């Protein structure tokens, strides 16, 4: 209900934040030992935090609310970081973390990262210090198809930070691929999905629209 309220009445975000919504929502997500990188969540649909159990749908709602507040209210992202929000998000990006069990939860987690961390310099510093860029790239490597484009857009903003870009350059996937190789492989997969945007010799047909299709009507097959 709160999500709908903020969607249709964005002006409610400020009084909600002034009433302490950011620390309250952040505390709900506080990850216990069950969300550590070496222990699996109790089930794919169940998350435990702050002594209470949230289902995946409720956790998704909390992440979306935090994203909306940080997008709308000046200072909300900083407050999120001061409440330990960056450290709380990280377990949700881990390969065996709860978000990876549900693609909708992956998107909600990345959306919160995009809104609450990427635009906020202090939070980005915390994110890089805690190895967040490597976790995000690991998450991209293991993610199902649906969230990839969304994750890549977030990563583009994250890597605008110089320290984050440096951490990305030192990252390698479990199979040895660098981040550049991973990005190129995802590009090639997208080319194949779009029925071969590049010519057989690998030359792109357009630098303005590099993934544009060569055959009329091919877009219809994607619907």
Give the proportion of residues in helices: 40-55%
Using the CA coordinates, give the radius of gyration: 19 Å
**Major sheet characteristics:** 2 strands, antiparallel
N→C terminal distance: 31 Å
Q: Categorize the overall geometry.
A: globular
Q: Please provide the count of β strands.
A: 2
What strand order characterises the main sheet?
1-2
Class from helix and strand fractions = mainly alpha
Unreliable stretches (pLDDT < 50, length at least 5) are: 32-52, 213-223
**What percentage of the residues does DSSP assign to strands (E)?**
under 5%
Figure out the total of helices.
Answer: 12
The string of secondary-structure elements, in order, is: HHHEEHHHHHHHHH
The overall pLDDT average reads 78
Explain briefly what this protein structure is.
The protein contains 12 helices and 2 strands; from the N terminus they run H-H-H-E-E-H-H-H-H-H-H-H-H-H.
Walk me through this protein's architecture.
The structure is a single chain. This protein has helices at 2-8, 13-18, 21-28, 56-72, 76-82, 85-89, 103-116, 121-129, 132-142, 148-158, 162-169, 179-193; strands at residues 46-49, 52-55. With 223 residues, the chain is mostly helical. The chain has 12 helices and 2 strands. The radius of gyration is 19 Å and the shape is globular. Strands 1-2 form a two-stranded antiparallel sheet. Helix 4 runs parallel beside helix 7 and helix 9 packs antiparallel against helix 10 (148-158).
Output the keywords:
single chain; 223 residues; mainly alpha; two-stranded antiparallel ribbon; 2 strands
């Amino acid at each position: 209900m709160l999500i709908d309220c903020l969607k249709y009445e964005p002006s409610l975000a400020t009084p909600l934040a002034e009433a302490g919504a950011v620390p309250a929502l952040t505390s709900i997500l506080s990850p216990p030992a069950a969300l550590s990188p070496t222990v699996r969540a109790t089930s794919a649909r169940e998350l435990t935090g702050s002594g209470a159990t949230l289902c995946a749908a409720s956790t998704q709602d909390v992440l979306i609310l935090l994203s909306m507040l940080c997008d709308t209210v000046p200072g909300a992202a900083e407050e999120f970081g001061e409440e330990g929000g960056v450290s709380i998000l990280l377990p949700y990006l881990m390969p065996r973390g709860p978000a990876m069990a549900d693609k909708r939860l992956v998107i909600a987690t990345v959306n919160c990262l995009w809104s609450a961390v990427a635009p906020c310099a202090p939070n980005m510093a915390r994110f890089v210090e805690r190895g967040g860029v490597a976790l995000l790239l690991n998450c991209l490597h293991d993610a199902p198809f649906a969230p990839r484009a969304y994750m890549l857009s977030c990563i583009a903003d994250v890597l605008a930070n110089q320290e984050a870009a440096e951490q990305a350059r030192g990252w390698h996937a479990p199979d040895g691929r660098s981040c550049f190789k991973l990005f190129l492989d995802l590009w090639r997969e997208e080319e194949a999905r779009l029925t071969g945007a590049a010519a057989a010799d690998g030359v792109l047909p357009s630098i303005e629209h590099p993934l544009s299709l060569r055959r009329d009507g091919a877009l219809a097959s994607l619907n």
